[in-house]
Specification:
Blueprint: H1 8-22, E1 34-38, H2 43-55, E2 58-63, H3 66-79, E3 83-88, H4 94-108, E4 113-116, H5 131-159, E5 163-167, H6 180-201, E6 206-211, H7 236-244, H8 250-262, E7 267-269, H9 274-282, H10 284-294
Parallel strand pairs: 1-2, 1-4, 2-3, 4-5, 5-6, 6-7
Length: 299
């Protein structure tokens, strides 16, 4: 395993690299970055951690599934040149998120990338949603991101560099029916990310938001975890196949995200959902019509 860069010389070199990349005078990728990925034990989170490790970065894989996070870190460390550590983390716990982020900073001397990726799928018609559905979606999907931002942003401001990457969804750009609580949280994450990006840019910190479509992950088969199941929630995989056709692979999403980070894109979408993202941006009315048309046969 590669040890973290903790010296003042390493910190100065990274500052120079960040400045050079921003000025277009240098390509990123010359130094190992210190990164945190929440929800990293499976799906998109695992693919992001693998892409970072392949580059030689130092990654903390955090997940509510402690054993899964440990297995993931061990697997990645055996296959890639970077360094990986597993950590148990419930993103609903603000104090735990802050402690983990601060520990990574203390151990490695800096914090380059934080992926606030942990989330759950909550689906169903609006009249099927209980307050339990709403609260769970908000607590994990939205508060989890808020907690990560709140913990990482002050550290990055003090450093004068860093990149926060929040995972939303095309459901944060496109008004998707039958998953109203999920859509609410994802729209909020997009708004949070874009607003913070404007503030942070003036102080050397970057912010991006990931908006993938349906991805082939365990989440599709685990909608409403620990919650009352709904008619539409139970049909999520079926609906995904009908609306999108081929599902994106997590590795494809990670590839697009890594490219988006290098380009410092504000909204990072997958190749397969780029057209839908453009419709949502250029014409909300067309996006609304498309969402209504895609669910016209559902009851």
């Amino acid at each position: 395993m590669r040890k973290g860069v903790t010296t003042q010389q390493g910190d100065s070199a990274l500052r120079a690299e960040h400045s050079g990349v921003r000025a277009g005078q240098q390509k990123s990728g010359t130094m190992p970055r210190v990164a945190v990925v929440t929800g990293g034990a499976s799906g998109i989170g695992y693919a992001l951690a693998a892409a970072l490790m392949a580059r030689g970065d130092i990654v903390t894989v955090a997940d509510i599934d402690e054993q899964g996070a440990t297995r993931c870190a061990e697997d990645l460390a055996s296959r890639y040149p970077g360094q990986a550590d597993g950590a148990a983390l419930d993103v609903e716990d603000a104090a735990a998120v802050a402690h983990m982020i601060q520990s990574v900073k203390k151990q490695h001397g800096r914090l380059d990338l934080v992926f606030n990726n942990a989330g759950i799928g909550v689906g169903g018609a609006a009249d099927e949603h209980t307050l339990e559905h709403w609260n769970r979606a908000i607590d994990v999907n939205l508060r989890g991101v808020v907690h990560g931002v709140h913990a990482a942003y002050p550290i990055m401001l003090e450093q004068g560099f860093g990149h926060i990457v929040n995972t939303a969804s095309m459901a944060g750009l496109y008004p998707v029916p039958h998953k109203i609580a999920y859509v609410t949280t994802k729209y909020a994450i997009v708004g949070l990310s874009l607003a913070l990006r404007h503030e942070a840019a003036k102080r050397g910190v970057k912010v991006s938001v990931i908006c993938p479509g349906y991805v082939e992950t365990p989440l599709l088969d685990n909608i409403n975890p620990g919650l009352p199941q709904t008619t539409q929630g139970a049909r999520t995989r079926e609906r995904a196949a009908r609306e999108q056709g081929r599902l994106c692979l997590p590795e494809e999403v990670a590839h697009d995200v890594m490219r988006g980070i290098v380009r410092n894109e504000s909204v990072i979408v997958t190749t397969s959902t780029r057209l839908a993202e453009r419709f949502a941006k250029l014409s909300p009315a067309i996006a609304q019509w498309g969402a209504s048309y895609s669910t016209a046969d559902e009851v």
